[in-house]
Structures are given as C-alpha cells and as structure tokens.
Design goal:
The structure is a homodimer.
Chain A lengths: L1 H25 L5 H10 L6 H8 L3 H13 L3 E5 L7 E5 L1 H23 L3 H15 L4
Helix pairs in contact in A: 1-5, 2-5, 3-4
Chain B binds a DNA duplex through helix 4.
DNA sequence: TATTGTTATACTCTATAACTATA
DNA sequence: TATAGTTATAGAGTATAACAATA
C-alpha cells in the first residue's frame, strides 16, 4: 500500500531530522526540547501554560525547563499586568542570538540534502509537506 | 529563499511526527527512544554497540534502555557464539507484538493527514523524501 | 471555587569515567 | 593492548500530586 510507504518515509525522515537537531543542540549542551523552546520563543512571548500546551508537556515540566534556561541567561520570566498569576516567557538577547545561530546551523546541515533536489522539486516538497502536516492526528 | 522554506517545513513536520510518536508511546509508557528501539528490532538482531551507534547513543545509555525493556519482557539479550564479549539484542514475541501494534497506531494516526493527498501526490512525496533523506548531513 | 504556576518526588534518559571479561 | 559491555555517578527531562497566590 502506498500510504504505508509514506508513513515509513515520514517516520524515517523524522528521526533523520531529529538526529541533526539533537547533534546541533548537543554541541551547545541543549536538548532537543530546549532547542525547540528557543525556536518557538524567537517570535512569541507566551505564558507558561501556553508554551507547555504547545510543546505537549506538563506545566511542571516547563517550570524546570525554563528554570534551567533562565539560569543560563537564555530566557527570562516576565510579569503579566492583566493577570498577576500569569508568567510570560521570552528570549534574552543572548537567547535570541543563540537561537538564530543554531537555526542557521540547521539550515547549513540540511543544505546538502536539499541540494539533491532541483528547485522545482523543492517547491513541490514544501507544498506537499504543508498539505500533509496541517492539523494532523 | 526556497531552501529556507523547505528547512522550516522539514523541521515543523519533524516535530509534528515526533508528537504523534511520543503520544502513542506514552499510552504504553514507552519513551520515543524505546519506541524507536522496538521499531528497529522488528527486523534486526544487532549487537549492543551496533544498536547504540545506530541510535546515536553511548553504549552505557543503551545498557540502561535495554535493561528496562528487558525487565518489561519486550526484548532479550543473547550470546554471540563468534565472540563471547558480544551481546546480541532482539525482540521477544511480546515485544514484537507490541511493536507491530504501535506501528499500526502510527499508521492510523497519520492516515487523516495522508488522505489529504491524492495517490499521485503520495507517491511524489515518498519519492521526494527518499531523495532528500539519503545520507543527510 | 477555579486557574496559574511552583515545588516535592520518583523515574527515565543521557554521557563520562572506571571497571570486567574477552580478544 | 584493544574492544564489548556493565556499573557508578551526576544531571536533564518528564509526569503526578500537593501547594500558594490570584482570579
């Protein structure tokens, strides 16, 4: 069945990219989760609960993650003036710089793979991934 | 640039599929790594070092992973007659059944996404993923 | 009362270093 | 000596339950 081959390809592709992301994170002592946190915060300033939900993690897990990232000066906690229970999270300048740098390395690491496709195929792949990945299971 | 859009799509796709795999594993108290171990052992009987290298993990990490999976009756260690230092790893019948079951759930979970593509596009996507993912950075 | 976030606890995942057994 | 694997240790990631502060 074609759909089985596609599932296999998606899963294999996933572990391949996870490998690249993990390696690039590890070079800076960052886990895949921390790498993802930095990536998300590049253009957002969510509250703790929002970020936990987005990552699919418990809020207590996020407290620990943000504690450690804050201790390293990569993120900061801010008060929310509308609701004093809420804690907003955002990148420090150092965190933003690190995030941009690492995502540059991700692009660099994936470039050889991407260059195996001609421009038409790249566009096609982007379109197909968008089609497949919008609101999945 | 097109390649940036493709990198973004690949990374987003990766976290999406990781989310599906993590959820399906968690329903059986299996981490993403354990899920992957079971997936790999479906059709292989590697030695500890080979499996560690394939996963990109230290051999000591693998000892712990296999300890816990063995304690749950999912995998077993076997002696290697050629070299008595070597430990081979393989699935138990229970482990094989669980692995097949979970990978069935993965296919099921990804089916709605896949069904958003017509058969031609599915084939196309499989081909493009294969082209991109062979021996990446 | 309900929600937001933290803390305490326990377990898994992970790497490094030191070790045992075999080659 | 070198290689295969385990163990000891330490730290990060994770969820559950109990908690404090605010709504």
């Amino acid at each position: 069945m074609t759909s089985d081959a596609l599932v296999d390809a998606l899963v294999r592709n996933t572990f391949q990219v996870v490998g690249v992301l993990t390696r690039i994170g590890a070079e800076r002592d960052l886990s895949l989760t921390q790498l993802r946190v930095l990536g998300i915060l590049r253009d957002r300033r969510p509250r703790m609960t929002e970020l936990a939900a987005f990552l699919g993690l418990d809020k207590s897990t996020l407290s620990g993650l943000i504690d450690r990232a804050e201790r390293r000066g990569l993120v900061a906690r801010g008060k929310n003036p509308q609701d004093r229970r809420v804690v907003d999270v955002f990148l420090t300048p150092a965190g933003l710089e690190l995030a941009e740098q690492m995502y540059g390395e991700v692009r660099h690491a994936l470039t050889p793979a991407i260059n195996r496709l001609d421009p038409q195929d790249r566009d096609q792949l982007v379109q197909l991934l968008h089609a497949v990945m919008h609101s999945p299971g």
